Amino acid sequence: MYLFYILKASLDCSVLTMAEVDLSPKYPCPRNTPPPSPPPMNRSRVLAISLVSFLLLDPAIAAEEKAGLTCYYHAEKPAKPEFNLDYEGTAYGFSSVEEQKRFTEERAASLYQRIGGKTAVHAAVDLFYEKVLADERVKHFFDDVNMTAQIRKQKEFLSTALGAPTAWTGKDMRAAHQGLDLRDEDFAAIAENLLATLTELKLDRALIDEIMIIVASTKDAVLNR
Ligand code: HEM
Question: Is the pLDDT of residue 43 over 70?
Answer without folding.
Answer: no
